[in-house]
Please model this.
Amino acid sequence: MKTKLSASKALVDDLVAGSRILAEHQVLDAYGHISARSDRRPGRFIMSRSLAPALVTAADLMELDADSEPLPGDKRKGFLERYIHGEIYRARPEVMAVVHSHSPSVIPFGATKTKLRPIYHMGSFLWSGAPVFDIRKVREENDLLIRDNPLGKALAGTLGKCNCVLMRGHGMTVIGDSVPEAVFRAIYTEMNARMQLQATQLEGPIDFLSDEEGRRSTASNRGTIERPWELWKKSALRRK
Ligand SMILES: [Zn+2]
Model:
C-alpha cells in the first residue's frame, strides 16, 4: 500500500535520483540503500521498500520512525539493514542523508590494517577518518548484517563524528548534509579506495591530503555539488 510521506517533493525526487545514480555508478547493485531524514518530521526518515536501487520510484518510498520501523498500516517489506540509517539519524542530528553500500574497492580496507585515507580532493571528506566497525566485537554470532537497533547503535558509535565508517567483511556507510552530498561521498569513497590501492603499487610512501587540506577541500566540494548532481541525475533518470 502507499502512504503519504512527510517529505517534500524535492526530497522524494532526490532520493529516487540518488538510488538510480548509485546503481548506475555501480556503487549499489541489487544490494545497498540510500535514505534521507524527513524534511517535515526530523524524527523520521524516508527510504525505499526492499528493492534493487535501479528500480526505485517515488511509490516505493516508505516513511520509517525513529526506531526504523514502518508506520502503522504500511505492510511493505523494508530493508533488513534499515537500522543502520535510523541509528545514525538518532546519534547525529545534523545528518540529513545516509548511503550504505558493499562498494567493492572499499572492502580490502575493512579487512586489513591499511587505513582508507584521502588520496585526492574528491575524497577529501575522508580526512575525518574512516574507522572500521567489527561486528564480532558486538555480537559473536552474526551474519554480518545490521539487522536490529543494538547493532545499528554500535555502528553509529564507531562512525562517531566521522563521515564514513567501514564494515569488516561487509561494506561501508557514508553520511551527508543532503542527498546529493551523501551520493557524492559514496561514489568518491569507491574511487578513492581504488586509487589508494593503485598507489600502493608505485614507489611510496603515499602522500595523502593533510587534515587541513581535507577540511578546506570538503568545504569547497560542498559549494560545487550541484554540478555533478545535475549531470548524474540527468544520466541516471534517462534510463527507465
Ligand atoms: Zn549491507
Summary: The first strand starts at residue 33 and ends at 37. The chain has seven helices and seven strands.
